[in-house]
Amino acid sequence: MFERLFPRRKSQRTPLPQPNAQLALGALLVRVAFADRNYQATEIGQIDRILAQTFNLKPIAAAKLRATCEALERDAPDTPEFARILREEVDYAHRLALGDAMWSVALADGNSDEREEIQLLAIETALGLTDLDIEDLRKKATGTL
Length: 145
Known about the structure:
Number of strands: 0
Number of helices: 8
Structural class: mainly alpha
Distance between the termini: 68 Å
């Protein structure tokens, strides 16, 4: 009886694309912003700016990419898999710049949160950054350099 009243609908979910460097970076930026469980507009704006600058996108395209990255971050590989994609496709100097960008997302809301810092450390380590470079990124971002 309930089947006729409330028929099951097939999922209309669009399959997620395979992660590439753009999507992996965006998903990791989103992961950093989500780490404190407080995803704010300032963080979203910072992610959009980073994606626009990094990949030469217009604001609308960057926002669409971020939205895809949000879905990917929820349903796709863990941090090491995203980082592996970036390690394979991005040279060390640019991965170091990605670490700097991730710090800018973590601090976009004006707060330094331990959960975000833990997530950043995991990402930076998975990206293959050296301990010295990781410490320098943290000091630079927090103004303790």
